[in-house]
């Protein structure tokens, strides 16, 4: 875990309520509270890394992406997976997570 618990650490620990749509031993998926698409979910590893490039184990990296694809497929046939890495890459919460964006009638309204 980070030196100070992140918002996602606190959600995982059930200190902060969230709309959980999926969870297993390694991951949790929640609805984003400020959605950028009709369906906007976040897949969060329980094991902390501040950024995507902090995951150096290929198995962990693959499992993260496989989980995101699994969760996305449970909510939409077509979807976008997005990761922001680092402040200048648009990352706001420094706990690795994958955005699932979907649900547009005619495709995405704008780039995210």
UniProtKB/TrEMBL annotation:
Superkingdom of origin organism: Bacteria
Motif Histidine triad motif: chain residues: 95-99
Name the UniProt record assigns to this protein: Histidine triad nucleotide-binding protein
Residue stretches making up the HIT domain: 7-112
InterPro entries: Histidine_triad_CS, Histidine_triad_HIT, HIT-like, HIT-like_sf
Listed Pfam families: HIT (PF01230)
Alphabetical list of Gene3D superfamilies matching this protein: HIT-like (3.30.428.10)
Organism: Deinococcus arenicola
PANTHER family per UniProt: HISTIDINE TRIAD HIT PROTEIN
């Amino acid at each position: 875990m980070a030196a100070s618990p992140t918002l996602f650490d606190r959600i995982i620990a059930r200190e902060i309520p969230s709309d959980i749509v999926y969870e297993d031993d390694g991951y949790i998926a929640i609805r984003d509270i400020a959605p950028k698409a009709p369906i906007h979910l976040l897949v969060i590893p329980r094991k902390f890394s501040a950024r995507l490039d902090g995951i150096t184990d290929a198995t962990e990296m693959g499992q993260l992406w496989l989980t995101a694809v699994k969760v996305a497929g449970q909510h939409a046939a077509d979807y976008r997976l997005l990761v922001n890495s680092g402040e200048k890459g648009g990352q706001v919460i420094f706990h690795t997570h994958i955005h699932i964006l979907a649900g547009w009638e005619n495709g995405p309204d704008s780039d995210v």
